[in-house]
Write a structure and sequence with these properties.
Elements: E1 4-14, E2 19-24, E3 39-43, E4 46-50, E5 52-57, E6 62-67, H1 73-79, E7 83-87, E8 108-110, E9 116-123, E10 130-135, E11 138-143, E12 149-153, E13 158-161, E14 173-174, H2 176-180
Parallel strand pairs: 8-13
Antiparallel strand pairs: 1-2, 1-7, 2-6, 3-4, 3-7, 5-6, 8-9, 9-10, 10-11, 11-14, 12-13
């Protein structure tokens, strides 16, 4: 898991209330807000946040914990032996250096064989965020999906994207300001 710090390991179940014994690594800070912040574990190739229902330190490197939604033997068995992680905010890829979709407005977009354009707007709908790209005076909406991005150069404000075939043009609109500047023939 890149950009993650190993914070501990789930060792064994404890009692009958869904609690487990964990070993805590040095990266697990004494200031960690166990009531508010999750730790993360890899389950079936997915990074899953785990919230604590109960957390009680046991010595310097141990704790008795109960994770929310892991209250049966079979659920607890999924965690046994697994390491849990915290986001690594000390690397140069920390959240302060992270780019968000709204940061890309104004970036030049290289779409390969589909041409070049500019990201002109973001429509941030929780269910389906869209970015607007203008290519040769035509504006088109495409889903804001990280998988479409091949490369970003924040210094030159350029982004290279690869879109599925046929996606461009589905909902394109001619830019009214470009059209109105054309002389009438």
């Amino acid at each position: 898991m890149n950009n993650w710090l190993p914070a501990g390991r789930v060792i064994k179940p404890f009692g009958e209330k869904g609690e487990v014994i964990v070993t805590l690594y040095d990266s697990f800070s004494d200031n960690f807000q166990t009531e508010e912040e999750p730790v993360f574990v890899k389950i079936d190739s997915l990074t899953v946040p785990l919230f604590f229902d109960h957390f009680q330190r046991r010595g310097q490197n141990g704790a008795l914990v109960r994770f929310a939604d892991f209250d049966t033997e079979s659920r607890i068995a999924e965690l046994l032996g697994k390491e849990f992680f915290l986001p690594d905010n000390t690397t140069e890829n920390s959240s302060t250096d992270e780019l968000f979709w709204e940061d890309l407005i104004g970036f030049e977009v290289d779409l390969g064989s589909d041409g070049k354009g500019v990201i002109t707007d973001l429509f941030d709908n929780d269910l389906n965020p869209l970015i607007e790209i203008e290519i040769d005076g035509v504006r088109d909406l495409i889903p804001a999906v990280d998988d479409f991005i091949r490369d970003i150069d924040p210094e030159t404000h350029c982004i290279r994207m690869e879109l599925p075939e046929g996606l461009l043009g589905l909902n394109a609109q001619k830019d009214e300001s470009a059209e109105s500047s054309q002389p009438n023939v």
